[in-house]
# Entry
Amino acid sequence: MSHVPAARQFRSRCGTRLCIALGFVLATACAVAFTVDAFGLGHVFYGGAAIVLVTVFCLSPILRGVRPLQVWAPQTLAGACFILSFTANYILSDSPESVVNTTYVLGYALLVVWLGALAVHLGRQDESTILDTIAVTVGALLLVWVIMVVPMAAGSMQPRGVALGVYPATDLTLLALAVNLSRRLHRTVPALQVFILVLTLQLGLDLAYAAAHLFAPEWVRPLLACYLFAYLGYAIAAGHPSVVELQYHPVDDERGSRRPTALILFTISPAILATSVPLYGSIDAIARPTLVTVLLVLVFVRLTRTMQALTGSEARSRHRAAHDPLTGLLNRSSLFETLTRRLGRNARGSSGTAVVFVDCDDFKHVNDTWGHTAGDDLLRQVATRLAASLAPGDALARHGGDEFVVVADVPDQAAALALTDRMRASLREPLVVNARREHTVTITVGAALALPTDEVDAQEMLRRADVAMYEAKARATGQVVFFDEALAESSRIRATLGDRLATAIAEEQFRVHLQPIRGGAAFDTTLAWEALLRWDEPELGPVSPEVFIGLAEELGLIRELGELAMREACAGLARIRRECPRVGDVAVSVNVSPAQLLDPGFTEMVRRCAREAGLPLHAVWLEVTETMLVDTAPHVLEAIRDLRRQGVIVLIDDFGTGYASLSTLLRLPVDDVKLDRSLVARLGQEEAATRQLAAVMALVRSLGIDNILAEGVETPDQAVILEHLGCPLAQGWLFGRPAPVDDVISSLSHDAVR
Ligand code: C2E
Ligand code: CA
Ligand code: CA
# Structure
């Protein structure tokens, strides 16, 4: 695929080399001819070669496609001037010397304009480029003035000698401009490097030429012949493919071009030199101080601008480092600083410090439904609303994601409560999403308050507010939770439990208890047992599964714990089936956490546990909560389908508490629905409860699921109503509390004996 361009590249490189070689041969031949026969044919050859080379110089860049043309026009015109001059001098040999000189000097001047324009174009809108270019030009002029013009005028030099000094002076200016240009490019452009090299050669030649004119006239002709090589060099530079790179490039960063190094190099040194050479004549007395003054003013302006730019960019980067780019609020690190400062100040005063954590509820849902752009937009609106609800001295920060934090000075808890009320009220009116839709953001708020007497640092305050917010989330009552001693205690216990959980799993400190699931007439037959984990922590005593399951999920230990539960459950059921064969083909129903389902090894784990216990797969039921299945990944659904194909029964647990029940049910491959305890609890007490339950059951049946299990059945009335409604399965304290496997076995044997 790539060998065609490679071949073309190779051919073009060979072509370039051939041209250079030919040019070299031509230049050498004509130079020799000129040296040997200076006034005859050699003269014409010389002129012809010079014209050819300069034509290449002035046309190549345009043919190579350099842009913009107005920047390159002076270069082309300069070439045209040189060609005119050569034609007048060498081809039409009787032209007046003034024509030759004027066109030549004009060509030089156009080159200066070209390099200046190029520098300005490359610097685009960067006024430092313009200042530097002017400074470099003035500096070069001053240098030439001091080292050439003044000594020539002061010494034995003729006016012609002074005229000869103009060429090296211009060379020097061009050289300075070209070096300045190459510094601005921040990358190597061979065309420009060759050009700088040739300008150096030209400077040497011009100096030697001037010297030869004054001191060694016999060297004038051979030196003149050498100019052909300089012209060849110009042609090579301008014909090089890299010449097109001499244009504006967005990659050229501002960093380098803003540095005034070139300026200092080309201005300070001539200025110093200018003061060390004695003044000569009145023109010098005026010209020199003027040039030095111009230079110093330029240096002053340039340095002032550089300082301003630096200060500006410093301020910008300081702001960037302290603020959140999305909302413009303080970010996490500056929040920390602010809080530290406030706590220190308030500890010496009489005001308390409140830290309020705000978390937007269900924000993931916003992003999933309307996309992240809408989510970002909504966050900005929330930030604006919250900011408007605060007092002038309060600090608002984005703590990441959909969390915000407020730091405020408050006298007491009542004031802090008033503040959180104002914050919640600010979001009561719906926000606008995607220009048309309205969405009300609800927030969960947790707060911590430090009074001047409390010795607490910023980190601890943030932790407290965070704990309070988690508690508020867990309570789900929509009330603000303030951090207090009780919360401190429970969070300490949580922390201790968290520390011990991994060891507890490794040491298998967990047991499963079994609770019967009944079916048949009057729910008199046990069809399965639900396995419920129990942890009796050696020091702290029994820990609720709601607590340790949540912790294991948070700490990433749920896979190990889930596997332990599955193994224990299967082993327990296998023992029952073995020791009490009368129970028949009963099953065990095991609770599964979302993180477990995401694990690719989950299916295999279930199969392994059943196999090791010697259970058929249809004796294993899995209880999966409906909320966790709302945003199920395709591979999770596939895993569930796979297990079902192998006989495993899948239940939706706690049905009726989530919000996406219908869509979940429609999408999910499930066998069974377990109605939440809250739907059963009021049966027999309220008329409406029966109607509600009947409606939910009708809904589930309409989706083709007939296996409905009611959990939390505590009274005989409830059981009667359920049976009456046609609910086939039930579970609850009425039929049996969760009990250790041994107890289940002994009560089964007892029943058998009776
Ligand atoms: P769940 O799956 O909804 O389990 C039913 C809970 O209700 C159990 O609480 C059970 O003891 C209780 N219960 C049973 N019958 C009645 C009744 O008639 N009245 C009342 N008031 N309650 C009844 P438990 O054992 O405290 O378990 C709480 C939760 O912990 C479970 O809720 C389940 O989500 C989770 N869990 C328990 N074991 C495991 C497990 O092995 N893995 C996972 N992932 N979660 C588990
Ligand atoms: Ca369950
Ligand atoms: Ca349940």
